[in-house]
Structure to design on (229 residues):
């Protein structure tokens, strides 16, 4: 249980284009989804937290107009990198937190496999 | 401020035992998580501790002392596939996860 998928696994795009990444919880309902970015050999950096049906909460220094997050349902959140530039090249990982009555499951974040973005 | 400390890198021998420590200072505490992350992959959940004591799960065990702000992850009978980064994360009073920088574990034959 607690499987999270992410699509695409990797994407290469030209500078100035927009890229959409999907994150789905496959076997549970995710009230909260998180988007992280990780540069090589560095720790996870939380970009934003999104709750179903409401606006995402962005971490300091993350441009909300550049990284558009939509959490339209309890199983799907999307991150759109708008007007991507080479410095946006990174490993983007989503995670989801469930709604099970068991505290352990509802507090645990389960990660998608990640999306490697390369902007040329 | 909030802070999670864990060693940057550790080396151990195949078949041996290794203990990865994590100390934390956070505003509130609602549990401590350990994740494993292989290079180029996303983290996978290993364990969750919210009460003091040792939680054993196969070759992996996790210990927590809330009064000391301390946890460790114990890996027994090390295998080459255990080479990975191990991330310690604490959930604070706002149910936000505070992440450590991770410990890179290198297993040698």
């Amino acid at each position: 249980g607690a499987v999270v998928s992410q699509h695409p696994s990797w994407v290469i795009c030209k500078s100035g284009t927009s890229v959409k990444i999907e994150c789905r919880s496959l076997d549970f309902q995710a009230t909260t989804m998180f988007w992280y970015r990780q540069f090589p050999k560095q720790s996870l950096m939380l970009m934003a937290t999104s709750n179903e049906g409401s606006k995402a909460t962005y971490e300091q220094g993350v441009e909300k107009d550049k990284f558009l997050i939509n959490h339209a349902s309890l199983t799907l959140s999307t991150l759109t990198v708008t007007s991507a530039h080479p410095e946006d090249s990174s490993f983007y990982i989503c995670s989801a937190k469930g709604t099970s009555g068991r505290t352990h499951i509802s507090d645990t974040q389960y990660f998608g496999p990640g999306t490697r973005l390369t902007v040329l | 401020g909030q802070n999670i400390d864990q060693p940057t890198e550790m080396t151990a021998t195949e078949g041996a035992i290794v203990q990865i420590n994590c100390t934390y200072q956070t505003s509130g505490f609602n549990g401590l998580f350990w994740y494993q992350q292989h290079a180029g992959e996303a983290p996978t959940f290993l364990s969750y501790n919210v009460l003091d004591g040792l939680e054993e799960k196969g070759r992996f065990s996790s210990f927590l002392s809330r009064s000391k702000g301390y946890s460790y992850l114990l890996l027994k009978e090390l295998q080459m596939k255990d080479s990975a980064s191990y991330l310690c994360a604490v959930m604070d009073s706002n149910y936000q996860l505070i992440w450590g920088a991770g410990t890179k574990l290198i297993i040698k034959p």
